[in-house]
Design brief:
With about 325 residues, the chain is an all-alpha fold. It is about 80% helix and about 0% strand.
C-alpha cells in the first residue's frame, strides 16, 4: 500500500535534516582545532582596535547616506543629514536580512524620498544612480587592489559601469527634451491599445519634466563619487581593524582589499540573507591567501560579521522602527 504524501514529506525532511547534520558534524570535527583557536583569538580582542572598527562601520553607512544626500541636493531637495542616515541604515537592514530584501529596500527608499519632497522621477533617478555609483566604486577599488596584488583587473566591467554612470547623469538632463521621440512611440502604443493618440502624453511629459530637475553639478557629482568610494573603503577599513584587534595585522593593504572585494562580490550573487556562509567563506579564503593563519582569519571574519551583521543591522532595524513611527505620526 502506497505511503500517504504527508508521511512521505516528513520522511524526506527527516532525511534532509540527517544529511545536513552529518555534513555539519563532519565539518565541525575536521575544523574543530581551527575553530577552537579562532575562539581563543576572539575571546580577548584589543578594545582600542575594536572601537575603531565600530567607528569605521558606522562611517561607511554615513558615507552612503551622504552620497544619496548629494544626489538629492543636486535636484533641489534638501533634507537634514540625520534623516538620510536613518534611511540608509534602515534600507540596508531590509536589503540584507529579508528574502527579496533589495526590493523592500528600494520601496522604502522611494517612499521616504517622496516624503523628503523629491518628485517620482527624481526619487527613481536618485535610487538608480546610487546603485550604479556604488557598484562602480566597488569595481574601481577591485581594479586597484588587483593591480597592487600584481593581477589583471576586469576593466570591461569597470568601463561598463562608468558608462552607465555617465548615461544616468547626462541622460537625465536630456530626457526632458525628448518629446519629439516619445510622442510617436506613445501614439504607436495607443494605436495598439485602441486608445486616443495623445492618451497618457501629459503623464509622460510630466515625468520627463521632473527629470530635468536632476542636474548633477560638478561639485555634487564629485562629492557623490567620493562618498561612494568612502562607503566601501570604510567598510574595508572595518575589516582591517578587525584584523588588528585579533592580531592579524600582517596582511598587506592590497591583499586585504582583494579579499574584501572578493567577499562583497560573492555576497552580491547569493539569495541567502546577509550572504551568510558565502561572504564569510570568501573573506576567510582571501585573508588566508594574504598570509593570515586560518584560526586568525576565522576570528577576524567572525568579529567583522558581528559588527556588520549585528551592530550595524541592529541600528538599521531601530532606524526602520523610528521611520515607521514618524510616518504613522505624520499620517495617523
Amino acid at each position: 500500500m502506497e505511503e500517504p504524501p504527508p508521511t512521505r514529506r516528513k520522511v524526506g525532511r527527516a532525511a534532509a535534516a540527517a544529511v545536513v547534520t552529518a555534513v555539519l558534524g563532519a565539518e565541525l570535527i575536521l575544523g574543530w582545532r581551527s575553530l577552537a583557536d579562532a575562539l581563543t583569538q576572539l575571546r580577548a580582542p584589543h578594545l582600542g582596535w575594536l572601537g575603531a572598527a565600530l567607528l569605521a562601520g558606522t562611517a561607511a553607512m554615513q558615507s552612503y547616506a551622504r552620497m544619496q544626500r548629494r544626489l538629492l541636493r543636486s535636484a533641489g531637495v534638501r533634507v537634514p543629514l540625520l534623516r538620510h542616515v536613518a534611511l540608509a541604515y534602515a534600507a540596508h537592514s531590509l536589503s540584507v536580512t529579508l528574502p527579496g530584501g533589495p526590493a523592500f529596500a528600494t520601496a522604502l527608499n522611494y517612499r521616504q524620498m517622496r516624503r523628503f519632497g523629491a518628485s517620482p522621477a527624481v526619487a527613481s533617478w536618485c535610487i538608480a544612480l546610487s546603485g550604479i555609483l556604488s557598484a562602480a566604486a566597488l569595481a574601481a577599488i577591485t581594479a586597484f587592489s588587483t593591480i597592487t596584488a600584481n593581477g589583471a583587473p576586469d576593466w570591461h566591467t569597470f568601463l561598463a559601469l562608468a558608462v552607465a554612470v555617465l548615461i544616468a547623469v547626462l541622460g537625465a538632463r536630456r530626457l526632458g527634451d525628448l518629446t519629439a521621440v516619445t510622442r510617436p512611440v506613445l501614439q504607436l502604443i495607443n494605436r495598439l491599445r485602441r486608445r486616443p493618440a495623445d492618451h497618457g502624453q501629459d503623464r509622460v511629459q510630466g515625468f520627463l519634466d521632473q527629470l530635468r530637475a536632476a542636474r548633477l553639478t560638478p561639485g555634487n557629482g564629485a562629492a557623490a563619487v567620493a562618498f561612494a568610494l568612502l562607503n566601501w573603503l570604510f567598510d574595508a577599513a572595518c575589516l582591517w581593524l578587525c584584523c588588528m584587534a585579533v592580531g592579524g595585522g600582517t596582511i598587506s593593504a592590497g591583499q586585504l582589499l582583494l579579499a574584501f572585494c572578493a567577499g562583497m562580490a560573492a555576497g552580491s550573487i547569493t539569495i541567502v540573507p546577509g550572504g551568510l556562509g558565502i561572504i564569510d567563506g570568501a573573506l576567510i579564503l582571501g585573508l588566508i591567501a594574504g598570509g593570515i593563519p586560518t584560526d586568525v582569519a576565522i576570528a577576524v571574519v567572525v568579529l567583522y560579521r558581528l559588527i556588520t551583521l549585528g551592530f550595524i543591522i541592529g541600528l538599521g532595524w531601530l532606524s526602520y522602527l523610528a521611520i515607521r513611527r514618524r510616518t504613522r505620526a505624520a499620517h495617523p
